[in-house]
Amino acid sequence: MLVSAKEMLDKAKAGHYAVGQFNINNLEWTKSILATAQELNSPVILGVSEGAGKYMTGYKTVVGMVKGMMEEMNITVPVALHLDHGSYEGCLKCVEAGFSSIMFDGSHYPIDENVAKTTELVKLAHDNNMSIEAEVGSIGGEEDGVVGMGECADPQECKAIADLGVDMLAAGIGNIHGKYPENWAGLSFETLDAVQQLTGAMPLVLHGGTGIPEDMIKKAISLGVAKINVNTECQLSFADATRKYIEAGKDLEGKGFDPRKLLAPGAEAIKATVKEKMELFGSVGKA
After folding, report:
1. Which residues are identified as catalytic?
2. Partner of 281 for a Cys bridge, out of 18, 64, 157, 158, CB 3.0 to 4.6 A?
3. What is the largest CA-CA distance in the chain?
């Protein structure tokens, strides 16, 4: 059964660790992440961007696949299925499809409109026993066509959005999606600390977890981050393992072209990446 992310994140914040949100793109991704979470007895959040949801033919397909897989694989650890960077319309569709958590990214709206739409979606999510994440200050890089420069959120705006009843808050602290450029200035822990002081017990979310140095990740967790999003890193490790398999000519040996064989090294690489992240985030054994 899918669970809302709220309970696992409240527990994580109190226990000073973070739960990983690992974005899924297809069956292999989902299977690898669920298997690793079960093996490590870790709670997990499966993230679905609107682009990935569309690629997988729609949110109902995603819900059917995840629920079916959890049953067939005997997954007993807490699993949340979460819309990542959802539009207002996307959030409505995921409520209907049976997701257990949504993120409304109203960061590109004027603050008044962000507040109005967030208020409406908070009620809708909670009426359906779902958790809801909001964002203040755009996260840098590109995700599904939304481009941000990695700005820092205004702590007062964060408090205003937190007070609307959201369950978790993504505050921009200089983090970006995708690979980090060499001239990246690092995370603004001053901003993060100021946000936590104003938002109290609310779990904070760090987007763009790929490429942030380990010491920064640990410091962010100590300052209230309880959810860390990972996507690019799994994509890179999957691509690297697949490339090596093909360059070694394995796809030309016997039935090496069979997709189950062709995709197996990539799927194993995803597992290794997820394991590494869960160990770093401190969620192992916390299910």
Report:
1. 84
2. 18
3. 62
Strand partners, 96: none
Tell which residue, 172, 164, 207, has the closest CA to residue 188: 172
pLDDT digits (tens, 9 = 90+) for 9-36: 999 999 999 999 999 999 999 999 999 9
Return contacts of 189-196, CB within 8 angstroms, 24+ apart. Answer: 189/219, 189/220, 189/223, 191/152, 191/153, 191/155, 192/220, 192/223, 192/224, 192/225, 193/223, 194/155, 195/153, 195/155, 195/158, 195/159, 195/169, 195/171, 195/224, 196/223, 196/224
Residue 170's SS3 state is strand
pLDDT, mean of residues 167-178: 89
For the record, the structure tokens of 108 come out as 């590109």
Report the percent of the chain where pLDDT is more than 90.
80
The residue among 277, 107, 140 whose CA lies nearest residue 208 is 140
Reduced to 3 states (helix: H, G, I; strand: E, B; else coil), residue 175 is coil
Q: What phi-psi label fits residue 181: left (phi over 0), alpha (psi between -120 and 50 degrees) or beta?
A: beta
Collapsed DSSP state (helix, strand, coil) of residue 71:
helix
Whether the Cβ atoms of residue 242 and residue 261 lie closer than 8 Å to each other: no
The residues that bridge with 143 in the sheet, in sequence order, are 146
DSSP conformation class of 251:
G
CA-wise closest residue to 2 among 61, 81, 69, 58? 81
> How confident is the model over 61-87, as a mean pLDDT?
98
Question: Which tens digits make up the pLDDT trace of 188-199?
Answer: 999 999 999 999
